[in-house]
Design goal:
Blueprint: H1 3-6, E1 27-32, E2 36-41, E3 50-57, E4 60-79, E5 82-94, H2 98-111, E6 120-124, E7 126-128, E8 131-133, E9 139-145, E10 149-154, E11 163-170, E12 173-186, E13 195-203, H3 206-228
Antiparallel strand pairs: 1-2, 2-5, 3-4, 4-5, 6-9, 6-11, 7-8, 9-10, 10-13, 11-12, 12-13
């Protein structure tokens, strides 16, 4: 007995019918706007093809369709049995509804890591018996900042995973709190003793978080105005 005779429903030859596999692949979103995004993935995407993407952030989840405008090999990473390729691709969103655009904007506002443009300086504050240590080597310069943390160039090397108090000034508003040292890298320039430090905000007052949200909203508005000009 052949396989066709065992099928529950008979198959028929057809013409003019196309299909496609629906395959789930994991991607990391590198940057995002209401018009598109750059992503990293271990799979090479076909330029010109449209894909469906599901964007997850915190408690938000949305489905968008996007056309791959470019895809290049970005780097490799060590994997079991050798090295795995990491591709970087640019995606242009298609047929984005106004409600989806609003959701994307909310994700951007809550996850954007922004270059503040102007120089912003701060310092780590060490508290010993209630005395604030004002040593100059505890100073740092903010390079990027988001609602969840900041990237700084520091003259001091803090210890990874330590939770340290800090203070900076955002515009005309003071901003301070406690941050966990997420990572420490040597400064890109070899002729300096500075360090690039990733700080994850661990404890912020409501006032400090409000000041930060207001500052980031102003940066996003400035960037959007510059892009539309």
């Amino acid at each position: 007995m052949d396989r066709s005779s065992r099928r529950r429903y008979r198959r028929y030859d057809v013409k003019g019918v196309d299909g496609a596999f629906v395959v789930r692949i994991d991607v990391s979103v590198i940057n995002l706007s209401a018009a598109g995004m750059a992503i990293e993935t271990q799979n090479s995407l076909i330029v010109g093809r449209s894909y469906s993407f599901r964007i997850n952030h915190s408690d938000r989840e949305m489905d968008v369709a996007g056309r791959v405008m470019w895809c290049v090999l970005g780097k490799t990473k060590r994997a079991e049995g050798g090295f795995a390729p990491i591709f970087r691709a640019g995606v242009q969103f298609e047929d984005v509804l106004s409600e989806t655009t609003l959701q994307l904007q909310r994700v951007i506002e809550n996850s954007a890591v922004l270059d503040p443009g102007a120089q912003i300086f701060g310092r780590f504050v060490s508290e010993v018996s209630g005395v604030v240590d004002d040593q100059p080597q505890a100073q740092f310069e903010v390079k990027k900042i988001s609602l969840s943390g900041m990237l700084v160039d520091a003259d001091v090397r803090p210890r990874k995973d330590d939770v340290v108090p800090f203070e900076i000034t955002l515009g005309e508003s003071p901003f301070g709190g406690h941050g966990r040292i997420a990572y420490i890298d040597p400064y890109p320039k070899k002729d300096t003793s500075r360090y690039r430090v990733g700080i994850e905000f661990a404890l912020l007052s409501d006032t400090a978080r409000d000041n930060l949200e207001e500052f980031l909203s102003s940066l996003i508005s400035l960037n959007e105005s510059a892009e539309s000009a």
